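Margin note from the TA: students keep mixing up input and output lines. Inputs are the sequences; the output is the structure of the whole complex. Example:
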Amino acid sequence: MGRGDDDGSALVVYGTPLENSDELSARKRAKALDKGTLRQQQPVWKQDARDSEGRRRFHGAFTGGFSAGYFNTVGSKDGWEPKTFKSSRGSRADMRQHSAYDYMDDEERREMDSKQIGTAQEFDTFGFTAAEYARREATQETNRPAVIPGFVPDEIIVPPTDSIGVKLLRKMGWRHGRGIGPKHIAASSEVKREGRKAMLALASAGSSSQDAGPSLEDSETAEEQLDLPPTSVPDFVRKIKDNVHGLGFDPFQSAPEFRHAKDYRLDDDKDKVKRRTLRPNAVTMSKGFGIGALEEMGDEDEDVYATGPHPEMMVLEDEELERLEKIERKAPRPRLPTVAVGKDALPGFKLASENTYQAEWFHPPVVPPDYVPVHKFVAALDLSQSQSDNTPLEAPQPEDKTLVKLIDGMAILVARSGTQLEALSKEKNKENPLFQFLFGGMGGDYYTRRLWEERSKRGLQIQSNRDRPKLGASERGQALGEMPLQKSALPAIPAEDRARLQATLNNTFMKPSAEPTKTNRLPFEDDPAKQARYEQFLKDKYTGGLRKMNKGAQQLTEAQRAQEILEFEAVAHAARGTVSSSGANLLGKLAASSDRFTSGGVEQAGKFVKSIEEQQSPNQLSVPSTSYAPQPSTSLSYPRRTEEPWRPLPLLCKRFDVLDPYTGQSSLAKPKSRIESLTLATPSESLFSSKITEAIGSAAKVEEVQRESTPPVDEGEQQEPEEKIAEKPVDLYKAIFSDDEEEEAPSQPVKNVDAANAALTRLVADDFLESLGKELGLAVPPPMPVPVKAPEDSSKGQTTQDTSGGQPEDISKGQTTEDTSSGQPQDIPKGHIKFVKPSRKGEEPKADIQKERDEKAQAKDAQYTSEPEDHATTKDDKDQRRSRDKRKDKSRDRREESSKERSKRKRRERKERHKRHKSKRRRTSSSTSSSSSSPSPSCS
Amino acid sequence: MADQLPRREAVVLRGHEGPVLAVRFNSDGNYCISCGRDRVLCLWNPQKGLRIKSYNAHAREVRDVAVVADNSKFCSCGADRQLFYWDVPTGRVIRKFRGHDSEVNTVKFSENSTVIVSGGYDRSVRAFDCRSHSIEPIQVIEAFSDSVTSLCMTRTEIIAGSVDGSIRTFDIRAGRYCSDDLGHPINSVALSHDGKCTLAGCLDSTLRLIDRETGDLLQEYKGHINKSYKTDSCLTNTDAHVVGSSEDGRIYYWDLVDSSVVSSFKAHASAVTSIAYHKTEPMLVTSSIDGTVRVWTP
């Protein structure tokens, strides 16, 4: 309807203008409606497309009639919808990528194609079209005589055709077998020509007659132009791939110097290469079979990709190395690997006449002539020496006893530690007259004899050790520091019997002691009889065996005798101490004089002394076991060692750069933080506190009992009693609050953490709800829709005030919440526990006066429902709860029914409480007074 | 060997007003630091006898001092129950640790200087953290039944001697502690340089050498007087001799092995309170009730 307007201006309007409905008269409007040009939107099903004549568009009887698509629009109500949904679940691989091309008709496609630039088919020498084109051309010559009679499938045999490039080249005067580029005469050697001739002849002989045309022609041209460069004999003819490398593999990629060497070698072996140009397998290649358009006659093996290295390079590397080595060994010509490209050096350089490069040569180490590749043990040598050596004569002991001891000790030491010690002590004690025996002086013979004896003894010992290399289980255990097994039958005997047995055995027998003690002084000088008995006792002690009845002791009673034995033991022990110290001095002197050089290390010296002790039999030096190593069995002696586990705290371990030895173990000693104890009161504590609350009234007493009843902790871990004290009353709080919780969810098992957290949040919520309730109570009429819980909660809050504070007159709401949340136990007055006690039995303490009435009616019910859920979340309590749960299961039906009733009741209660609340507020503005006016009935 | 022992008085360090209670070398032994009843800590150059700096902050007598391995800080403790962590160059207190419940007798650094360990009259050993800013102890060890008089540290152990007569070794790595009851109140604890023995000065005028591994008594050293004062004992740098101080102002050297008195000399006019032996050189520093610190060389 494009038409200019009446005013005749140049303005041209196309399309149908929409008319504004406001400006139209009713008739026009109806008309416009009918025409569909009214701007006011019609519903989509009332709109229909019209053509310029105002007729409804007719799409065709079978393509939608008057309405195609969605009321003459595309797709559906929801818009463009080209395809209906089809699940691709079963055929995921069939998912297709759609392109605009798919939706084009032929015309559009043609148009689209005409805009594209592409290779015309006949020029497309690469890819599929080339083969196709070749085939098409071949089929045009179907009249040609075939070698194989009958139908040959085109797909198998693709005849060779000249590519466009070849055609062009040929038009430019190129001939097959000739190289591209400027001519030169360099390569017209006889051998090459011969080779080429031979190859072409062979190729033409093997080819079929109908295809032989171009190649024969080629050979002719080649013959004609012998002078021309035969460069078109491609590289592969000269350089046959004679290895097993994959195409494109370059073994010299990272070692180019080998490539040069290879080149060089190939230059050497030119002849071989020339021989290769006579390709025998060219015969087997039939033209026209599996050859692409790119390939020409004789190009069968050409590296089409031309990216790979020359096939000649592809030689196994080790082979190359071998070769290199050979060359190196011959080394008639000095070459530098980097320079020696071919025969000449780089331009501007001259090859050196002398090779400066020399491989470094290390001579093997010289094996000493006396080297024996077998280790021989020194002790065995010593032994053989000492036995083969001339045995020193038996020498008499010197008169001086100390000298004898000195010599003995020295001999032992030297036998143990070797002759170096002797040399050292010789040097050290040059002037010392005591040590003259070392220099062959007084007692020299005796010394040599003793030394020999000790050596032989030691050798024997070592030999015997070697004969018996296996340690017993007990010895091994001892070496590993294990506790020796109890071999006696004692453990089987009960403890009291054992003690009795021990006592009787002690009375009857005595253990033999290692050494007899000589006492210089008499401990019982004033009582000669006793002294005699003591000496007898000592004698017996060191012989051991059956305890003889002392002659003199017969007149004594049993008890007196036992007393005396104890006394004797003590005295003997004391005496032994004094003797040992005197003996120790001697030994110490000896050790110090002969072994002073070891005094740098205490441990060494100590061990040294001990080793001597082990060696000596008691009669040799007559030195009793010293105080250096006190027997652990004697419990009287100091020092005593005790070991205990001790727990370093993790931070300490961290600071000492040590792994915490108690990682992952329960923290026994960890002092709990206050928050922790508030939220996660340990079960035993809460149980305990509940017991205490029933037992005692005062908080102080609670602590005392707590301390008494706690199991004995390790000393180091008993750290902060105050902390523990502080924790207790918090649990009391918890006990109180968890009761509240039960009301709300009686059948739900409450977790520890949840309960505590809920308690905390409720405390906060209480405060808020209370204030909210106050506001609402003043503003909104009685049937309050929103805060259903609010009144109950607020009343609860008041109850907590009662129980925790115990001073209802003073306490305001805010204060209460503060107190409870911060958990300050000091604020708890003594009497609070009495308030607590009834609260755990059920709902009664929270009940108000009005509530009480209801409760009486349903007392049973309430008690039943509220009872099972205690505050307790402890392990101990869990068992109890479980048993209770069983009970619950039995009477579940009853409970369900009762819960209905209860909910009804609760609703009623709430209403009532609300009314009461409101009335109270009207009476007094302070809510505290209301709380004070509603004490729990059982409290009083 | 005996003539190599420091017996010649090299320098007298005067400056303390009143008894000097402890003297310690720094880690390289070029300086020493002393503290005393005059509540002052003094940093000395013992070779030249110069007083370099004095540190004032303690409210009561200073009983012990320990220097960090890099010599940049030190820690002191005293009768004011606090531990002071000092900066050496500025002389300022970096931190005051909440110390003990009563007098602090001894203080030592851990080997990596991250932890201060102190022992006090409140029968506890406390470990304080130098890394964090907390002034509270990391751990309080209350395994003692009497005042803790002396401490020494190894890489992973805390060795503490107490008046209850026990040397207690707290092995942090093993998570155990072992207690060696010597039967006499222990006045001082020192380690041998090989770390295998403990030298304990007991109040029965005896020094005892204990094998740390087994707890055996290896040797006893007698001759000096030590019955009531807190005195020190140590081993020489070569571990060949034992050095002990006496209440009559004498210094004793014993042979480590045979426990014979190698040498003794009168060092001070009155009781020797503390001794420190140089780590590498034969040099001894002693402090006394007479208010002087003396440096001894061979």
